[in-house]
Write a structure and sequence with these properties.
Blueprint: H1 2-83, E1 111-118, E2 133-135, E3 140-145, E4 150-162, E5 175-183, E6 193-196, E7 211-214, E8 217-220, E9 223-226, E10 241-248, E11 251-256, E12 259-265, E13 274-294, H2 297-302, E14 305-308, E15 313-314, E16 319-320, H3 325-337, E17 343-348, H4 355-375, E18 383-389, E19 406-410
Helix pairs in contact: 3-4
Length: 411
């Protein structure tokens, strides 16, 4: 009986001890979980506070940087006001859309001989790939009618390279210009759009650096410049920007809305042109011109004639584009300096698929060009304007380039 009692006590102790160990383990686990949760909460609070503080400091840094950029741009504008005072002309904003940019301070001069030109033209089909460009396979790059006329809309990852004869070969001379309009909504996730000095997917990229455009900055190698972000227009749309680059035997000049951003001397020999992008928000493109033999408007007119592909009329704004100033201002100055000089001006307009609309707005564009020159101080008897009609564009048609052409000829 004694043995049984001892065994019973030992077994009871064992059971009680095991139970205590189980309770202790549960308490331990709960305690660990409690403090782990508390620790995570405290850690998260610390992380949140750190992020908030970091964002506040980042915002301060961004604001300070933008303020400094604005000061720099203001200094440039003040200098330009004084330096180019004799070149600035009156601009009637009822006739020309100035877009808050002094377009009449023209420093970029397009090449006069076309290598490649694309509006895109009216024959292009909406929601189809642009026929004049090589693009990335299965990319979201297509034609659409938006704002006014046809344009290319690019989304996601992709590229554009002009379809020129023999694109694998070096098709660029030692002197050329490249320009186009783009609308790139600012997004916190946006990546730079690259303009390359080679034809992507057709030529080697070896030895070439891209020109990068992102948000409000243009960069080439170790040089960069800020450009002013334009506000939405009166219809709530993002404004268009004009990118231009000239290359002359290694001298690169990069412009945004005719404002000189970067000048760079580089020992390169470009072989082609392409644009690549990672567009988290769609990028819009239009009015591409690749040309050679840059010559000032004044020199071309002195030789007899000047042809512009950069004078467009915005139907919904009932005004000429701001870029038109960069053409009309120097011509106005020439005519004012020489009252005996007279010009014939031939105008084309082909933005609509309907002949009646082209005829109507073609005449409106023609009249607006005349009125703009007169508002700049030109005598009416110095200019004779003629609407020459519209071009029914077709694939491969050499006359496509005349779609919005304006020709100035000395009498």
């Amino acid at each position: 009986m004694y043995k049984y009692f001892v065994i019973t006590i030992i077994m009871a102790f064992a059971v009680n001890t095991y139970g205590q160990f189980g309770i202790q383990n549960r308490i331990k686990r709960k305690t660990e979980a409690h403090f782990k949760k508390k620790g995570e909460e405290q850690a998260q609070k610390g992380i949140d506070a750190g992020i908030d503080a970091g964002l506040r400091e980042a915002d301060k840094g961004i604001e300070a940087g933008l303020n400094e950029a604005d000061k720099g741009l203001q200094k440039f504008d003040d200098w330009a006001e004084e330096e180019f005072a004799d070149e600035i002309v009156f601009v009637d904003e009822n006739l020309i859309d100035a877009d808050h940019i002094q377009w009449q301070r023209l420093r970029f001069v397009s090449g006069k001989d076309l290598i490649f030109f694309d509006k895109p033209f009216n024959f292009e089909k909406d929601n189809k790939a642009p026929s004049n460009w090589f693009i990335k396979k299965r990319s979201s790059t297509e034609i659409s009618e938006f704002d006014q006329g046809k344009m290319i809309i690019a989304a996601g990852e992709g590229f554009l390279a002009p379809k020129v004869p023999n694109p694998e070969a070096d098709y660029l001379p030692s002197n050329f210009t490249f320009e186009f309009d783009f609308m790139m909504p600012i997004s916190p996730f946006s990546k730079p759009m690259n303009i390359n000095f080679y034809a992507k997917d057709k030529q080697s990229r070896k030895g070439f650096w891209p020109i990068k455009i992102n948000k409000n900055m243009v960069t080439y190698k170790d040089s960069s410049a800020h450009y002013p972000v334009l506000y939405l227009d009166e219809n709530g749309m993002d404004n268009w920007y004009r990118f231009s680059v000239s290359f002359d035997n290694g001298l690169i000049k990069i412009y945004l809305n005719e404002r000189l951003m970067i000048t760079y001397q580089d020992e390169i020999e470009p072989t082609g042109i392409s644009i690549d992008y990672m567009a988290y928000t769609p990028i819009f493109f239009k009015n591409f011109i690749l040309a050679t033999n840059s010559q000032s408007i004044e020199d071309q007119l002195a030789s007899g004639s000047y042809t512009s592909y950069n004078i467009d009329y915005i139907i919904y704004k009932e005004r000429l584009t701001g870029r038109s100033i960069s053409v009309l201002a120097p011509i106005a100055n020439m005519l004012k300096d020489d009252p005996s000089m007279k010009l014939d001006i031939d105008v084309y307009f082909s933005q609509s698929d309907k002949k009646k609309e082209n005829k109507k707005f073609g005449q409106v564009k023609t009249d607006a060009i005349k009125q703009a020159l007169v508002s700049m101080g030109v005598l009416e008897n110095q200019i004779s304007t003629n609407f020459k009609g519209s071009i029914e564009s077709t694939a491969g048609n050499e006359d496509n380039k005349k779609s919005e052409m304006v020709v100035f000829r000395k009498k």
